[in-house]
Design brief:
- The protein has 504 residues and is of the alpha+beta class.
- Helix content is 58%, strand content 10%.
- It has 20 helices and eight strands.
- Helix 3 packs antiparallel against helix 4.
- The chain is rod-shaped, with a radius of gyration of 51 Å.
Length: 504
């Protein structure tokens, strides 16, 4: 008696039935052939797939796992068909019925696949919604941060929005995207809402680049949303900076406004704003002359830079620059007086020297020259600067000034009248030693020589003299305070000391 049943006659339908039953993933073809180990192997393969796939998530089943499982099914079907071709089925006895059963049971993996696909799609949708929500929370958390500190978060959120808009345009998250983008724009531009216009420029400029990353159909009206706000911020920030004399930034911001939004209402207000600032500083000359003059000079420079950078179609900027220069030049006279009254005689002298040189026909040039002389005298004799000099000249008292020095000497004087003149050097004279000047017998201009001299008429009162040799600087020895009284004739003598300077 044989140990195994004789092989069944070949049957193609039986092979098909076993193959179909094995394709269910449950090894039913092997079960009908009573191949328990192979049946168990199919169950294990299906169990591994279910462990990996469930619960369904957005990542889905790894491709390698899915490919491996499909390979197992194909091999099981092919191997089952080979075995079933010559092996009796345990049940059902009829081969066509087994094939029909295999076809029916294929609905199980097919239905499972459809269910899993639906569950996976739902998981993907929820994952996108969650991802969008995380990006929204990231943006919301940066509402109070400075733009520079939040910039990387804004860019990260924009990457999420772009991915949803471009790669998942039909998702539930994409339908929520307009609200997220509106919140994104208002959060990034928060400084504008807070009227912090200078701080708003950088984030609004950034928002104008967002259409480069997102479809315009997604943005809608947000594509142009930053434009008017940026124009306003550039204008308002520029007006704030021009008021405090921040030349570099107001020129830059007004220039950007006029170049980027040339036809905007804000750009049309730039020239009037600049002109108004010039007029404001003109009025300030009466109370703070030097500060106003400095600002006017900076305005003149800045307006020229703005005109060169952004253009000046109607010539308004050119007119404002000319006004600033003219007012600044005229205001220099008032600044010199202000410095003189504040005791800053060195600055007052320089200011008036520049004014006299730059304004040969100005109505105040003569007095400016007097103040320039008095300021120089006051640097050696501070008492000389107690009063501003006038344009008065002449007087009833004769004062003769002689030069007992080999150098040309400029004589400066101020008091009731102010003036200066230069005496040529004395060819037969020489400088005195310091020792000679302290002797009781020291009498300059007493040698009977033909000293270079000049006689002037001065009014009564105190006059301050400074003798300034062309070869050296003024020292305290080169000054004299003369109290002039009627009925007297006065003589001043200029001389020089070796190694020190001049004396009187």
């Amino acid at each position: 008696m044989p140990t195994t049943p004789p092989p069944a006659p070949p049957d193609a339908w039986r092979a098909v039935a076993v193959a179909l039953l094995n394709l269910t993933g449950l090894g039913l073809g092997y079960a009908l052939l009573r191949r328990r180990l192979l049946t168990a192997a199919c169950w294990v393969a299906t169990g591994v797939l279910l462990l990996v796939a469930l619960p369904a998530d957005a990542d889905g089943v790894p491709g390698a796992v899915l490919a491996g499982y499909l390979l197992v099914l194909v091999l099981a079907a092919a191997h089952g068909a080979h075995l079933g071709y010559r092996t009796h089925l345990a049940r059902p006895g009829r081969t066509p019925l087994a094939a029909l059963l295999g076809l029916v049971l294929l609905a199980v993996p097919a239905g499972g696949t459809l269910w899993y696909r639906s569950a996976h799609d739902e998981a993907v949708q929820q994952a996108l919604v969650d991802r969008l929500a995380r990006a929204d929370r990231l943006v919301a958390a940066d509402r109070t941060k400075p733009y520079n500190g939040a910039r990387s978060d804004f860019r990260q959120a924009l990457t999420v929005y772009r991915d949803i808009a471009v790669r998942h345009s039909g998702s539930r998250a994409a339908h929520k995207l307009p609200d997220s983008l509106h919140a994104y724009y208002t959060t990034v531009a928060a400084p504008y809402a807070d009227q912090e216009y200078c701080d708003a420029i950088a984030p609004l400029t950034y928002l104008r680049t967002v259409p480069d990353h997102l479809p315009k159909s997604t943005l809608g009206s947000l594509a142009d949303w930053p434009d008017d706000r940026l124009a306003t911020s550039l204008y308002e920030c520029g007006t704030q900076q021009i008021a405090v004399g921040d030349t570099t930034n107001w020129v830059s911001h007004f220039g950007d406004l006029m170049k980027t939004f040339p036809r905007s209402p804000q750009a049309a207000k730039v020239t009037p704003a600049v002109d108004a600032e010039v007029r404001s500083e003109e009025k300030a000359i009466a109370s703070q002359a030097c500060v106003a003059v400095e600002k006017l000079n900076r305005l003149n420079t800045g307006i020229g830079e703005l005109s060169a950078a952004a253009g000046d179609a109607d010539g308004g900027l050119a007119r404002a620059a000319a006004r600033a220069k003219r007012s600044g030049d005229d205001g220099a006279y008032s600044c010199g007086i202000e410095e003189y009254r504040n005791g800053d005689f060195r600055s007052a002298q320089k200011t008036m020297t520049d004014f006299v040189a730059g304004h040969p026909h100005h109505r105040n040039r003569e007095r400016a020259r007097k103040i320039e002389i008095a300021a120089e005298v006051a640097q050696t004799i501070p008492a000389a600067g107690k009063k501003l000099p006038t344009t008065a000249s002449g007087g009833s008292i004769t004062v003769t000034v002689k030069n007992d020095s080999p150098d040309d000497v400029t004589v400066l004087y101020t008091g009731p009248v102010t003036g200066s003149f230069t005496l040529k050097g004395c060819g037969s004279c020489s400088s005195y030693s310091m020792y000679e000047t302290v002797l009781s017998t020291f009498k300059p201009c007493g040698g009977g020589k033909d000293y270079p001299q000049r006689t002037i008429q001065l009014p009564p009162g105190t006059t301050y003299f400074v003798h300034k040799p062309d070869s050296g600087e003024v020292t305290t020895a080169g000054s004299d305070t003369a109290k002039l009284r009627p009925g007297y004739i006065y003589t001043e003598c200029a001389y020089t000391t070796r190694g020190i300077g001049s004396g009187a």
